[in-house]
Amino acid sequence: MKKEERTNRGVVVMCLLMVAQVFLYQQVSAVPNMEPTALPEDQATEKTEKEEGIVSIPFKFLPSFRTTKDSCGVEKLIKEEGNGTLEVPVNELAVVLVDTWNNNDPEEGEPASGYLKNLQELLEKCRKSEVTVIHAPNHPVVDKYPQYYTLRDTVAKVMESYPQSKSTPVFLDWPESNNTYYDLIRNNRSEGSAPAYFFSPKSKRDISRFLTPLEDEFVVSTHNEFRYVLWKQGIKVILYTGGSLNECMLHRDTGINLLAGSDTRRTRFAIVVVEDCTYIMDSPETSYDEAKQAMLDYYKMKIAVVAHSKKMIFK
Predict the structure, then answer these.
(1) Which of 9, 109, 175, 209 has its CA 20 to 30 A from that of 28?
(2) Dihedrals φ, ψ of 124, to 5°?
(3) Is the pTM of the predicted complex or chain greater than 0.70?
Protein backbone atom coordinates (compact mmCIF):
# COMPACT_ATOMS: atom_id res chain seq x y z
CA MET A 1 0.00 0.00 0.00
CA LYS A 2 1.32 3.36 -0.94
CA LYS A 3 2.15 5.86 1.78
CA GLU A 4 -0.34 8.41 0.35
CA GLU A 5 -3.21 5.87 0.44
CA ARG A 6 -2.44 4.95 4.08
CA THR A 7 -2.46 8.63 4.99
CA ASN A 8 -5.84 9.19 3.28
CA ARG A 9 -7.37 6.18 5.02
CA GLY A 10 -6.04 7.41 8.35
CA VAL A 11 -7.72 10.76 7.79
CA VAL A 12 -11.02 9.04 6.95
CA VAL A 13 -10.84 6.90 10.10
CA MET A 14 -10.16 9.94 12.26
CA CYS A 15 -13.13 11.77 10.74
CA LEU A 16 -15.42 8.78 11.39
CA LEU A 17 -14.28 8.60 14.98
CA MET A 18 -14.98 12.30 15.47
CA VAL A 19 -18.48 11.92 13.95
CA ALA A 20 -19.18 8.95 16.25
CA GLN A 21 -18.10 10.94 19.31
CA VAL A 22 -20.36 13.85 18.37
CA PHE A 23 -23.30 11.46 17.81
CA LEU A 24 -22.73 9.74 21.15
CA TYR A 25 -22.54 13.10 22.96
CA GLN A 26 -25.82 14.20 21.38
CA GLN A 27 -27.54 10.98 22.45
CA VAL A 28 -26.39 11.33 26.05
CA SER A 29 -27.30 15.01 26.12
CA ALA A 30 -30.81 14.16 24.93
CA VAL A 31 -31.50 11.98 27.98
CA PRO A 32 -33.57 14.05 30.49
CA ASN A 33 -32.19 14.76 33.97
CA MET A 34 -28.77 13.27 33.22
CA GLU A 35 -27.11 16.43 34.50
CA PRO A 36 -29.45 18.63 36.59
CA THR A 37 -26.99 21.52 36.81
CA ALA A 38 -26.50 21.74 33.04
CA LEU A 39 -29.07 24.39 32.19
CA PRO A 40 -28.88 26.49 29.01
CA GLU A 41 -27.24 29.85 29.51
CA ASP A 42 -30.49 31.69 28.85
CA GLN A 43 -32.15 29.74 31.67
CA ALA A 44 -29.56 30.20 34.38
CA THR A 45 -27.76 33.31 35.54
CA GLU A 46 -24.07 33.02 36.28
CA LYS A 47 -23.21 32.08 39.83
CA THR A 48 -21.55 34.88 41.73
CA GLU A 49 -18.10 34.11 43.05
CA LYS A 50 -17.87 34.87 46.76
CA GLU A 51 -14.92 35.52 48.97
CA GLU A 52 -14.01 32.74 51.33
CA GLY A 53 -15.29 33.24 54.84
CA ILE A 54 -16.89 31.38 57.71
CA VAL A 55 -19.90 32.27 59.85
CA SER A 56 -20.01 30.68 63.29
CA ILE A 57 -23.62 30.13 64.41
CA PRO A 58 -24.27 28.91 67.98
CA PHE A 59 -27.70 27.28 68.13
CA LYS A 60 -30.22 25.83 70.59
CA PHE A 61 -32.57 22.88 70.31
CA LEU A 62 -35.03 20.79 72.35
CA PRO A 63 -35.00 18.38 74.00
CA SER A 64 -31.59 17.29 75.26
CA PHE A 65 -31.56 14.54 77.89
CA ARG A 66 -28.99 13.56 80.47
CA THR A 67 -29.01 11.24 83.45
CA THR A 68 -28.11 12.06 87.03
CA LYS A 69 -28.42 10.38 90.40
CA ASP A 70 -30.37 11.66 93.35
CA SER A 71 -29.16 11.56 96.96
CA CYS A 72 -30.18 7.91 97.19
CA GLY A 73 -28.21 6.91 94.14
CA VAL A 74 -31.29 6.43 91.95
CA GLU A 75 -30.81 7.47 88.34
CA LYS A 76 -33.08 10.21 87.03
CA LEU A 77 -33.65 11.56 83.54
CA ILE A 78 -33.19 15.31 83.15
CA LYS A 79 -34.61 17.19 80.18
CA GLU A 80 -32.95 20.48 79.23
CA GLU A 81 -32.08 22.70 76.30
CA GLY A 82 -29.33 21.42 74.01
CA ASN A 83 -26.84 23.50 72.08
CA GLY A 84 -24.26 23.28 69.34
CA THR A 85 -22.43 25.39 66.77
CA LEU A 86 -22.46 25.50 62.97
CA GLU A 87 -19.34 26.64 61.14
CA VAL A 88 -20.68 27.57 57.71
CA PRO A 89 -18.78 28.85 54.66
CA VAL A 90 -20.48 32.01 53.37
CA ASN A 91 -21.07 30.42 49.97
CA GLU A 92 -23.31 27.80 51.61
CA LEU A 93 -25.30 30.24 53.75
CA ALA A 94 -28.38 32.32 52.95
CA VAL A 95 -30.46 34.73 54.98
CA VAL A 96 -34.17 34.80 54.11
CA LEU A 97 -36.30 37.82 55.00
CA VAL A 98 -39.96 36.77 55.15
CA ASP A 99 -42.64 39.48 55.06
CA THR A 100 -40.44 42.25 56.44
CA TRP A 101 -43.08 44.81 55.60
CA ASN A 102 -43.00 48.53 56.22
CA ASN A 103 -45.97 48.51 58.60
CA ASN A 104 -43.44 48.03 61.40
CA ASP A 105 -41.38 51.05 60.33
CA PRO A 106 -41.15 54.04 62.71
CA GLU A 107 -41.94 57.57 61.59
CA GLU A 108 -39.77 59.02 58.85
CA GLY A 109 -36.43 60.15 60.22
CA GLU A 110 -36.54 57.85 63.25
CA PRO A 111 -34.16 54.88 63.52
CA ALA A 112 -35.22 51.24 63.51
CA SER A 113 -35.82 49.53 66.84
CA GLY A 114 -36.60 46.09 68.21
CA TYR A 115 -36.51 43.17 65.79
CA LEU A 116 -36.15 45.55 62.85
CA LYS A 117 -32.94 47.09 64.23
CA ASN A 118 -31.48 43.63 64.93
CA LEU A 119 -32.34 42.44 61.43
CA GLN A 120 -30.91 45.59 59.85
CA GLU A 121 -27.60 44.95 61.64
CA LEU A 122 -27.58 41.26 60.69
CA LEU A 123 -28.34 42.12 57.08
CA GLU A 124 -25.40 44.54 56.97
CA LYS A 125 -23.06 41.81 58.26
CA CYS A 126 -24.41 39.32 55.72
CA ARG A 127 -23.95 41.77 52.88
CA LYS A 128 -20.41 42.62 53.95
CA SER A 129 -19.54 38.91 54.10
CA GLU A 130 -21.31 38.19 50.77
CA VAL A 131 -23.87 35.83 52.27
CA THR A 132 -26.72 35.18 49.81
CA VAL A 133 -29.67 37.47 50.61
CA ILE A 134 -33.20 36.36 49.67
CA HIS A 135 -36.20 38.65 50.17
CA ALA A 136 -39.54 36.83 50.38
CA PRO A 137 -42.23 39.53 50.80
CA ASN A 138 -44.78 37.65 48.64
CA HIS A 139 -47.44 39.20 46.42
CA PRO A 140 -48.17 41.96 45.70
CA VAL A 141 -44.94 43.35 47.17
CA VAL A 142 -42.64 41.29 44.92
CA ASP A 143 -44.11 43.04 41.89
CA LYS A 144 -42.40 46.28 42.93
CA TYR A 145 -38.90 44.89 42.34
CA PRO A 146 -37.50 44.45 38.78
CA GLN A 147 -35.21 41.55 39.72
CA TYR A 148 -38.27 39.51 40.64
CA TYR A 149 -39.49 39.43 37.04
CA THR A 150 -36.12 38.24 35.78
CA LEU A 151 -36.08 35.37 38.26
CA ARG A 152 -39.76 34.52 37.70
CA ASP A 153 -39.29 34.24 33.94
CA THR A 154 -36.06 32.24 34.31
CA VAL A 155 -37.70 29.67 36.58
CA ALA A 156 -40.82 29.45 34.40
CA LYS A 157 -38.62 28.68 31.39
CA VAL A 158 -36.72 26.01 33.32
CA MET A 159 -39.96 24.38 34.48
CA GLU A 160 -41.10 24.01 30.85
CA SER A 161 -38.45 21.31 30.50
CA TYR A 162 -40.07 19.30 33.31
CA PRO A 163 -43.73 18.70 32.39
CA GLN A 164 -45.90 17.93 35.37
CA SER A 165 -48.11 14.84 35.42
CA LYS A 166 -51.80 15.69 35.06
CA SER A 167 -53.02 12.42 36.55
CA THR A 168 -53.14 11.69 40.28
CA PRO A 169 -54.78 8.92 42.30
CA VAL A 170 -58.41 9.71 43.00
CA PHE A 171 -57.86 9.71 46.76
CA LEU A 172 -55.36 12.56 46.43
CA ASP A 173 -58.04 14.71 44.77
CA TRP A 174 -60.31 14.34 47.78
CA PRO A 175 -62.07 16.32 49.15
CA GLU A 176 -63.61 18.04 46.18
CA SER A 177 -63.11 21.74 45.63
CA ASN A 178 -66.65 22.56 46.79
CA ASN A 179 -66.09 21.60 50.44
CA THR A 180 -68.56 23.94 52.16
CA TYR A 181 -66.98 23.42 55.59
CA TYR A 182 -63.61 24.61 54.34
CA ASP A 183 -65.27 27.54 52.56
CA LEU A 184 -67.12 28.55 55.73
CA ILE A 185 -63.93 28.64 57.81
CA ARG A 186 -62.06 30.53 55.08
CA ASN A 187 -64.86 33.09 54.74
CA ASN A 188 -65.01 33.62 58.51
CA ARG A 189 -61.26 34.25 58.57
CA SER A 190 -61.52 36.71 55.68
CA GLU A 191 -64.31 38.64 57.36
CA GLY A 192 -62.35 38.76 60.60
CA SER A 193 -59.25 40.11 58.81
CA ALA A 194 -61.08 42.71 56.74
CA PRO A 195 -60.81 45.60 59.25
CA ALA A 196 -57.04 45.17 59.45
CA TYR A 197 -56.70 45.38 55.66
CA PHE A 198 -58.86 48.51 55.70
CA PHE A 199 -56.35 50.30 57.93
CA SER A 200 -53.33 48.69 56.23
CA PRO A 201 -54.26 47.79 52.62
CA LYS A 202 -52.05 45.32 50.76
CA SER A 203 -51.55 47.85 47.96
CA LYS A 204 -49.54 50.07 50.33
CA ARG A 205 -47.30 47.30 51.61
CA ASP A 206 -43.63 47.33 50.81
CA ILE A 207 -40.40 46.00 52.25
CA SER A 208 -39.17 48.05 55.20
CA ARG A 209 -37.05 51.02 54.19
CA PHE A 210 -34.35 49.67 56.51
CA LEU A 211 -34.17 46.42 54.53
CA THR A 212 -34.65 47.56 50.93
CA PRO A 213 -33.29 44.91 48.52
CA LEU A 214 -30.14 45.73 46.60
CA GLU A 215 -30.17 45.20 42.84
CA ASP A 216 -28.08 42.02 43.09
CA GLU A 217 -30.23 40.46 45.83
CA PHE A 218 -32.97 37.93 45.14
CA VAL A 219 -36.68 38.66 45.49
CA VAL A 220 -38.86 35.52 45.38
CA SER A 221 -42.49 34.52 45.78
CA THR A 222 -43.10 30.87 44.82
CA HIS A 223 -41.56 27.70 46.18
CA ASN A 224 -39.98 26.88 42.82
CA GLU A 225 -38.34 30.31 42.63
CA PHE A 226 -37.07 29.88 46.18
CA ARG A 227 -35.68 26.41 45.56
CA TYR A 228 -34.07 27.53 42.29
CA VAL A 229 -32.12 30.27 44.08
CA LEU A 230 -31.06 27.90 46.87
CA TRP A 231 -29.83 25.39 44.29
CA LYS A 232 -28.17 27.97 42.05
CA GLN A 233 -26.27 29.49 44.96
CA GLY A 234 -25.34 26.13 46.49
CA ILE A 235 -27.07 26.91 49.79
CA LYS A 236 -27.11 24.33 52.60
CA VAL A 237 -27.91 26.48 55.67
CA ILE A 238 -30.82 28.95 55.79
CA LEU A 239 -31.18 31.75 58.33
CA TYR A 240 -34.89 32.56 58.66
CA THR A 241 -35.79 36.10 59.71
CA GLY A 242 -38.89 38.31 59.60
CA GLY A 243 -42.22 36.74 60.33
CA SER A 244 -44.47 36.10 61.57
CA LEU A 245 -43.17 33.06 63.40
CA ASN A 246 -46.62 31.48 63.70
CA GLU A 247 -47.93 32.44 60.25
CA CYS A 248 -46.04 33.25 57.05
CA MET A 249 -42.65 31.90 58.15
CA LEU A 250 -44.36 28.53 58.40
CA HIS A 251 -46.97 28.28 55.66
CA ARG A 252 -45.85 30.53 52.81
CA ASP A 253 -44.42 28.94 49.66
CA THR A 254 -41.08 30.23 50.91
CA GLY A 255 -41.76 29.09 54.47
CA ILE A 256 -40.33 26.33 56.62
CA ASN A 257 -43.18 23.81 56.34
CA LEU A 258 -42.43 22.93 52.71
CA LEU A 259 -38.78 22.35 53.61
CA ALA A 260 -39.08 20.60 56.97
CA GLY A 261 -42.72 20.27 58.00
CA SER A 262 -43.15 16.63 56.99
CA ASP A 263 -40.95 13.74 58.12
CA THR A 264 -41.31 11.82 54.86
CA ARG A 265 -40.75 14.84 52.59
CA ARG A 266 -38.25 16.76 54.64
CA THR A 267 -35.41 18.32 52.67
CA ARG A 268 -31.80 18.27 53.84
CA PHE A 269 -31.50 22.02 54.40
CA ALA A 270 -30.26 23.04 57.85
CA ILE A 271 -32.79 25.61 59.06
CA VAL A 272 -31.93 28.24 61.67
CA VAL A 273 -34.55 30.64 63.05
CA VAL A 274 -32.90 33.86 64.24
CA GLU A 275 -34.92 34.66 67.34
CA ASP A 276 -34.05 38.34 67.81
CA CYS A 277 -34.66 39.10 64.10
CA THR A 278 -38.23 37.78 64.01
CA TYR A 279 -41.68 38.86 65.12
CA ILE A 280 -44.92 37.07 65.97
CA MET A 281 -48.66 37.57 65.84
CA ASP A 282 -49.86 37.30 69.42
CA SER A 283 -53.39 36.43 70.50
CA PRO A 284 -55.91 37.73 73.07
CA GLU A 285 -54.99 34.76 75.29
CA THR A 286 -51.22 35.28 75.32
CA SER A 287 -48.78 38.12 75.64
CA TYR A 288 -46.38 38.87 72.80
CA ASP A 289 -43.42 37.41 74.71
CA GLU A 290 -45.33 34.27 75.71
CA ALA A 291 -46.49 33.61 72.16
CA LYS A 292 -43.00 34.15 70.76
CA GLN A 293 -41.34 31.84 73.29
CA ALA A 294 -43.92 29.13 72.61
CA MET A 295 -43.25 29.27 68.87
CA LEU A 296 -39.48 29.30 69.31
CA ASP A 297 -39.78 26.21 71.50
CA TYR A 298 -41.91 24.60 68.80
CA TYR A 299 -39.18 25.22 66.22
CA LYS A 300 -36.50 23.92 68.58
CA MET A 301 -38.34 20.64 69.10
CA LYS A 302 -37.78 19.30 65.60
CA ILE A 303 -38.05 21.31 62.40
CA ALA A 304 -35.31 23.88 63.08
CA VAL A 305 -32.77 25.19 65.54
CA VAL A 306 -32.78 28.68 67.04
CA ALA A 307 -29.94 31.19 67.12
CA HIS A 308 -29.30 34.79 68.22
CA SER A 309 -27.80 37.25 65.74
CA LYS A 310 -25.55 38.89 68.31
CA LYS A 311 -23.85 35.56 69.02
CA MET A 312 -23.01 34.86 65.39
CA ILE A 313 -19.40 35.47 64.43
CA PHE A 314 -18.57 36.51 60.86
CA LYS A 315 -14.94 35.50 60.35
Answers:
(1) 9
(2) -60, -40
(3) yes
